[in-house]
Amino acid sequence: MRKVRVGIVGLGAWGWNVGRSFHELADCDLVACCDLSESRRAAAELNWPGVKAYRTVDEMFAKSNIEAVVISSPAVTHYVLVQKALLAGYDVFVEKPFTLNVENAEALLNLSEERSRVLMVGHLLEYHPVVEELRRMIQSGELGDIYYVYTQRVNLGRIRGDENALWSFAPHDISQIIYMLGIEPVDVSARGQSFIQQGIEDVVFLSLFFDNRIMAHIHLSWLDPHKTRTTTIVGSKRMAVFDDMATTEKLRVYDSCAMPHHPNSFGEAIQVRFGDIHIPRVPNAEPLKLECQHFLNCVATRTTPRSDAADGLRVVKILDAAQSSLEQDGNPVSLRGSDDYISTSQRASRCWTALRA
Ligand SMILES: NC(=O)c1ccc[n+]([C@@H]2O[C@H](COP(=O)([O-])OP(=O)(O)OC[C@H]3O[C@@H](n4cnc5c(N)ncnc54)[C@H](O)[C@@H]3O)[C@@H](O)[C@H]2O)c1
């Protein structure tokens, strides 16, 4: 494959990892970078010989011969910078969250189509080998009917001032869940609290409801003693647990054998497991490298990325509905866009009321 000439915008805590990945890939010619901070520019030129650092994107666009732009600056800058890059004729990879509102996401999707440009959103987990394996297991029916999914993305971490834990973390979980299940939620409900900064939720509990009764629950926080990154999928045949903090054996698959109703012995009564646990062998490739390589392939071959602008828009719509629910203290918000729609949880609650009557 030919080398793609790339420029990266934003060399902060995460942007640096993204820059390093592109710099190390054989199919990439990282020729330029850009950051408002002088020290970040100096570090880039020192660590990546041959890469020219600029202060602004305008300067980088005017003076370098790049063909693709990677945007890893803060979320509030995404819309303006992606728009500028597309208008200047570049293919674009933008970090999550794609944008901070639905209108901006729609505008960028339309612009990329009008200009025939590749526009990819950094939904990293869609490139994780374990998520690939989970998607395969779900789609092939190996786990049986899916009952519910839950994820935890918590740590004692960086407290952001320009976005809450929902917009900062949930793009990963939402994109992962809809990628694995292959379906979109019909409504969402979210509750959270702001403890450190007024109006910026540090902890959020988000629930997604799907048409076929599947539920997903996402726990997000940057105020937690543990760094936890887990996904649990419960199906009628098997259950899978993905622990991304584990250095090896990230995926375990449990047979879904229910405990007998009438145990034959004390031992059987206290037994917590009745089926086998399987640890599938999953390639140990770095998801960020796979994601960056995917972008290079799409640029070189003019193909649509897996996490394209439409995927970005889907996730932003769900985040936007979740934000609206958060502001209404957890009221379910429909994603169907129809006034007469009764949400899944409202239907369930009506059913429950009828049963009790
Ligand atoms: N995929 C992931 O797992 C993951 C993880 C963390 C962060 N992110 C995302 O990556 C992006 C960057 O996060 P971060 O943690 O590196 O942020 P950061 O605040 O650490 O760094 C941002 C950098 O961008 C620079 N910058 C800001 N505005 C700029 C502009 N207009 N032009 C040029 N440079 C500019 C700043 O000087 C700073 O160096 C965010 O969108 C964030 O949500 C993704």
Describe the structure.
By secondary structure, the protein is α/β, with parallel strands linked by helices. 37% of the residues lie in helices and 25% in strands. It contains 11 helices and 15 strands. The chain has helices at 15-24, 38-47, 57-63, 78-87, 102-114, 129-140, 165-181, 266-270, 287-301, 309-327, 344-356, and strands spanning 4-9, 28-34, 52-54, 68-71, 91-95, 119-122, 146-156, 187-193, 203-209, 215-221, 223-235, 238-243, 251-255, 277-278, 333-334. The strands form 2 sheets. It has a 9-stranded mixed sheet with strand order 14-13-12-11-7-10-9-8-15. The longest helix has 19 residues, at 309-327. It starts with a strand and ends with a helix. Residues 339-348 and 350-357 have low confidence and may be disordered. The site of nicotinamide-adenine-dinucleotide has 22 residues, from loops.
Strand content: 15-25%
- Report the biggest beta sheet as strand number plus sense, adding barrel if it closes: 9 strands, mixed
Broad shape? globular
SSE order: EHEHEHEHEHEHEHEEEEEEHEHHEH
Query: What's the alpha carbon Rg, rounded to whole Å?
Result: 22 Å
Report how far the terminal alpha carbons are from each other: 67 Å
Mean pLDDT rating: 92
Helicity range? 25-40%
Count of individual beta strands: 15
**Category from helices, strands and their pairing:** alpha/beta
Present as ligands are: nicotinamide-adenine-dinucleotide
Strand order of the largest sheet: 14-13-12-11-7-10-9-8-15
**Number of helical regions:** 11
Sequence stretches where pLDDT stays below 50 over 5 or more residues: 339-348, 350-357
